[in-house]
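Today's session is about reading a structure prediction critically. Students often jump straight to the picture, but the first step is always the sequence itself: look for stretches that repeat, for charged clusters, for runs of hydrophobic residues. Only then move on to the predicted structure, which in these notes is written as discrete structure tokens rather than atom positions. Here is the chain we will use throughout the hour.
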Amino acid sequence: MGNEESTPIDESVPPQTLKARDLEALADYIKSGKVKNVVVMTGAGISTSAGIPDFRSPDTGLYANLARLNLPYAEAVFDISYFKENPEPFYTLAHEIYPGKYRPTIAHSFIRLLHDKGILLKLFTQNIDCLEREAGVPDDKIVEAHGSFARQSCIECHQPYPEDDIKQHIAAKSIPRCHECKGLVKPEIVFFGEQLPAAFFHNRHLPQDSDLCIVMGTSLTVQPFASLPEMTRTATPRVLINKERVGGLGSGTDDILLLGDCDDGVKKLAKACGWLGELEKLWAKTAYRVGDDADSAAEQPSHEQQPEKTKDEALEEEIDKITREVDETLNLSKWHEERVRGEGLPTVSSSKLSNTTATKEESADIARLHEDEESSLGHIFVSREAKDAALEAEKSTKE
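Below is the predicted structure for this chain, in token form.
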């Protein structure tokens, strides 16, 4: 099961539960009161409009953008063996995508709306970004199949680690270590080589109890998550809100396909149900700035309600954008130069990841990088001062 080929249902085959296989019939079914237990399954596609890149897009994905860290292979950033030897690349990534920097999408708020309506049975998500929580979906309604940044613990003694402490480390770009045994601390994200959380296996039967299954923003290629939609009853309507058809959805008698952008899809469904106003109001509450508390969210204007910029403000914003682009180009050149000179992070050979013995030189280099209790990541991040100096140098060259 998963993203296998399957034949779409023949249109001559009647649905078992819905009046028809279309959006209007689905909305009528939801509004009828028969829907009391909705199971939602999500992937990275519901977070991309928040500004969080997916993993494998060739130019914009997280793996593509980690090339500057000189990893032996892109996925090593989530390899538990590699993390134990060299945690810096993961904490570089954590600094960039840690919860609190991104606003939930309207798709996340739609899941919250289902909860507020009293019909959300469980959300199964592959995402680690915690945006469902930011949108207000309660912890007991969420199964994070691949873990998340919501909790963290020591990889040696498994002692929980305080959330405030890890936030300070990530903000300071330093490596957290256990207060008890000094072992490395890691958010409870499932790395390659680790088991899925027990909560996934304890709850994976729930699709069988659902009246409606909604699948959003996932390729359904990673098992065992990909098998979840197949665990629904035959007569349970399944809705796919996705850019393409995946996982055999569309082959069931009551499958509905809303192909396209996830945010557009949930707005269409909410409108058909008469919920669009509620959804937009709920989403507007997530528009608070980073650092504000959620209670003040409702007082903050949404993106659509922001006052128009003056010509001077628009010009200043455009200049800032160009400056950032120049900075990024210069930084990439700097990273490339460092790699060519051999000044970047030392790599761990593929043989070491296969549990063979590393050379003394490799071990010494790695040990020096994170032997302290609070190792710095300063050698990875380019300082603001360095950026300014590079920009001035670039200007002088052009002159």
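Discussion point for the tutorial: Strands lie at 38-42, 120-125, 142-144, 147-154, 185-189, 212-216, 238-242, 255-259.
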